[in-house]
Amino acid sequence: MPPAPATGRKDAAYEQIRRLILDNVWPPGHQALEQEIALQLGVSRTPVREALIRLEQDGLLQIVPRHGIRVLPMSAQDMRELYEVLTALESLAAELLALQRPDRDTLAPLVQATDAMAQALEQDDLDSWARADEDFHARLVTLCGNRMLAEAVFSHWDRAHRARMFTLRLRPKPLESTREHRALIDCLLAGDSAGAGAVNRAHRQRASRELLSLFDRLRLQQL
Q: What is the largest distance, in Å, between two alpha-carbon atoms of the chain?
């Protein structure tokens, strides 16, 4: 087999390290040397170094000269600011989508994701619930048709995912999310732009309050 192209090795290293962070295999504060990472992934240091630079730009880790990397934690203030941005952008996406008066076929991915969430909760499968929930929000942002808005949301996606997965089993069972998603779909079908924005805004703000309450309840400084 010929060696993999340099770009392929770099991208593969990026995805492997990113997944280790997002799945909290490397928890906040985790430290590792570049050489250790290269050995773990079975690649040379060059693609690892380039992947780490990208991940630092993504806000997932910090490169510490001569000391490798440190996975960045999130403080309560980080979480608050992140959810303020996501709430504003996603609510605008909901408003823009409602203005298009989408039909049921267009919104089928949102309905399917919501149904998958409900089924996952019935089976007490929180990991499947989280995947379906993220699929709903990703589809919502994509369907609105504003490419720059979607890019702005997805630039913060990984940090939000990591925080949500870290706290998934610390929060109350997410029974309200399915109802809120169905209410949003109803607004979208009715072409109710103001209603869609308001429902999504309330949905995201509730989720933010639940996450932030963990910092107080568990006396966390960061996660």
A: 58
Q: pTM for this one? A: 0.83
Task: Round to whole Å and give the CA distance between 99 and 40.
Answer: 49
H-assigned helices in the chain:
6-22, 34-41, 45-57, 76-99, 108-122, 126-143, 147-154, 157-167, 176-189, 193-217
**Residue spans of the chain under pLDDT 70:** 1-7, 219-223
Q: Tell me the backbone φ, ψ of residue 220, rounded to 5 degrees.
A: -85, 140
29 in Cβ contact with 73 (< 8 Å): yes
Token pair belonging to 218: 């568990």
| Residue type for position 223 | L
φ and ψ of 176, to 5 deg: -75, -25
d(CA 3, CA 221) in angstroms, rounded, equals 45
